[in-house]
Amino acid sequence: MQEIINYFSTIPSSHRALILAGGIALFWIIESAIPFVKFQYNKWQHAGINIFFTVTTIIVNFCLAFILLKTAQWTVDNQFGILNWLPKINSWLFAIIGLLLLDLIGAYLAHLVEHKVKFLWRFHLIHHTDTWIDTTSGNRHHPGESVIRFVFTTFGVLAVGSPMWMVFLYQTLSVVATQFTHANIVLPKKLDNLMSYFLVSPDMHKVHHHYVLPYTDSNYGNIFSVWDRLFGTFKTLEREKLVYGVDTHMKPEEHNNLKNLLSIPFQKQRSTEN
Predict the structure, then answer these.
(1) Does this model's pTM top 0.90?
(2) Burial of 274 (0-12, 13-18, 19+ CB in 10 A)
(3) Helix (H) or strand (E) run with residue 178 in it
(4) 193, part of any domain
(5) Which long-range contacts (CB under 8 A, 24 or more apart) does 37-45 make?
(6) Residue 136 falls within a domain, yes or no?
(7) How does pLDDT run along the chain (274 residues), one tens digit per residue?
């Protein structure tokens, strides 16, 4: 465990970039060879839009990173947060509890609130408009949503009391998990079901991208599925019934046009049709 702590305490930015780019490349190759759904779309044009949003997310996080660093250091220096209030425990258990709590507050809670608060949904909607879910869709977040998620992440670090190495470890696992669960691939059904008892599986997250309620408002988990199961937001849907997108924005000129996607949060909000 100490080797992991040492590595993520000083992980170079180049390594983080390589993990991001390498993950996209790996799943891009796999889904191109054996796709779950044979989409009729321009894969490169679609990727271009999603990579634009990936870049804006990186820029937002880079500009605000000093806040996260200062917050993590403050919790350690002042022994603040849940982890610092626990009795001394094994380093592996310490890491697992920390990752679970970061996932709960920084990811599950953030995602849930974005679906329930209309103003925040305006920004998160861009992620759901994608009707061709593939590995590039994972980072399809409006710059406004990137800021919203950063706020929740920072609050999670403060509440959990996680050191910066744990934050870097969580973010690395999150990137890979997001690319994996959005990839246009499918696991054997039994394996997917087994995986979904603890981790978010591809089928589980695909349900979240079904175009109508109540499925859109389910399966909020990022890495761990336990929070959806614990809080009653876990749902299943047969693979053959999946339709990606969101019912208010199913036209290509709306969900596949960068200019329109950037302006959606500021357009008149539409009521869901289902």
Answers:
(1) yes
(2) exposed
(3) helix 164-182
(4) no
(5) 37/184, 39/132, 39/134, 39/184, 41/132, 43/134, 45/256
(6) yes
(7) 999 999 999 999 999 999 999 999 999 999 999 999 999 999 999 999 999 999 999 999 999 999 999 999 999 999 999 999 999 889 999 999 999 999 999 999 999 999 999 999 999 999 999 999 999 999 999 999 999 999 999 999 999 999 999 999 999 999 999 999 999 999 999 999 999 999 999 999 999 999 999 999 999 999 999 999 999 999 999 999 999 999 999 999 999 999 999 999 999 888 764 4
The helix/strand/coil state of 244 is strand
Total domains, the chain = 1
**Which has the closest alpha carbon to 260: 129, 119, 139?**
129
Which residues, other chains included, contact 66 with Cβ-Cβ below 8 Å and sequence gap of 6+?
none
The Cα–Cα gap between 195 and 41 comes to: 30
- Rounded to whole angstroms, the Cα distance separating 47 from 160 reads 35
Report the distance separating Cα 266 and Cα 239, nearest Å.
Answer: 34
- Four-point Cα dihedral 175, 176, 179, 180, nearest 10: -150
**274 in a domain, yes or no?**
no
Residue 140 lies in a domain: yes
Note down the domain range covering 6. Answer: 2-188
Q: For residues 221 and 118, what is the distance between their CA atoms, to the nearest angstrom?
A: 20
Residues β-bridged to residue 199: 224
